[in-house]
What we know:
Blueprint: H1 37-65, H2 68-77, H3 79-88, H4 90-101, H5 106-133, H6 135-142, H7 151-161, H8 164-180, H9 185-204, H10 209-225, H11 228-233, H12 246-277, H13 286-321, H14 325-358, H15 369-386, H16 389-404, H17 408-433, H18 436-461, H19 465-492, H20 500-524, H21 528-538
Helix pairs in contact: 1-9, 1-13, 2-7, 3-4, 3-5, 3-8, 3-12, 4-8, 4-12, 5-8, 6-7, 7-10, 8-10, 9-10, 12-17, 13-14, 13-15, 13-16, 14-15, 14-16, 14-19, 14-20, 15-18, 16-18, 17-18, 19-20
Amino acid sequence: MSKSPLGQPPAPPELNMTFEDAGPPDAPPPASPKKSLRANTIIVMLGTLGSRLSGILRQMALNNLFSVTLVEAFNTAITIPNLLRELLAEGALVNSFIPVYKTLDATERRRLAQAFSGVLIAVNLLLMAAGILAAPYLVDLLLAGQSNIDRELALFMTRMVMPFLMLISLSAIAMGLLNADEHFRESSFAPVAFNIASIAALVLLPKQAEWLAFGWLLGGVAQLVVQLPALNRFGLLPTPALMGHPAVRRVLRQMAPFTLTAGARQFLNVYVLRLLSDARLFDSGTQAGYFNAQALFTTVNGLFVVSPVLAVFPRFSQAAAEKDWAQFRALTASTIRTTTFLAAPMSALIIALSPYVISIINTHAPRTAEETVKFLAGAGILSSWSLALVPWALVTVLLRTFYARERTREAVTISAIGFVLEVGLYRLLVPSLGLLGFGLSTTISGLLMTAALIVLYRRAVGFPAREVTGHLLRVVPLAAVAGGAAWLIARALPIQPGFILTSIPVLALAGGAGLAVYLGGALALRLPEVAAVTRRLKR
């Protein structure tokens, strides 16, 4: 999805940062028992929750300690390394590396890790240097001709944060190795280390552009370093080397089309940022509101959609490697049920309560015209994006089923077409509908991509359409009723949004009531997802 949705999503002087060779064990370790998928999911969700909550705290510090002008220049600067990291690191690596890695024995897995990490480091060094040299052209690509953002400040900070690409790529290698062997704890909590280090830098360092950029790099170092002890403990710590390995070509073949898909999504990101920076369409402060909405949306999307899918992805890969298609279909159905059961009420409640949700960022009510624009833009974008949460939950699950089967070409073709369509919809809808056009465009493209992916999936292994459709026909209307109840309660309360301390009681009362309506309805409909939660509470 774009930006997380725009992706996610609310990543970049050369650092001497290398992996050390832990050395092979004296004897093969005993095979560990198969890990609980439920336990893996809970670990990933807790890590994601910690990451997103600390990310919101980081966003709060950024918004309340720095001027809107500096914040918007910084948001522009980190776009380039974040763009490149998705093309080459986190998303592409996890989705292409794990399926290949799972087909190898222990010795070949270690050799693949050495060879692949060496290649990735070399590529990132070249791109980092190129990004610093080409920064003026990249910033001009991101900003509209009549921009509401300080170009020179954005250019200075872009060059400062570019080394983040190397740090996040090394961190992605560590994450991929740990996740492939279903060691989720350290990799899931690594982003928390990033946010804690960044928050400390925001609070303690001088409130200037260069120190803001340095704090971002400090967070990248922390995210990498916290994963190294786990790699060493599990015997997964490689020595990067520029050496050949047959499986590297398989990984690169998988990465290439995924990179093209990510490139299409990032083209969408660039187009949206140009829209937001266009002074003819939006006032100064709109882009900052957009990034605030992104931080909150990715909290919900990461916790309730991405986390369950990330936890089950190694199982998808294993079932595909064993050609156990009955298990593969069962995993698909159960993962879709879980993610949509969680995503549907979140979507409805955010739509109903978006002004209060966006107020979590604000330690004081808006005082200036720019702060008012930022608040209203954040609420509008967050509400419209939430329309797309369920469709993009389906897309997230279905895409992983294609990557697990190494049918990357089909998945990325659909994704690329979807993102091109989304750009067209933005161009058509945003000038006339304003902020609502963002969410409608993303929702429409998500629905069309879901339909196309289901058709291709059904042709290959047979899609569990009846189970999925029946589930959606129950949870989506139920979520709408829950959202309506929350909206009515919020309107009845004499509290205006805009400030965190006054908005939290509204979220607790109205959101809690809406969630109670949803869970009560789920119990009445005997949905197995809520029944499983009830059984656990009774233990």
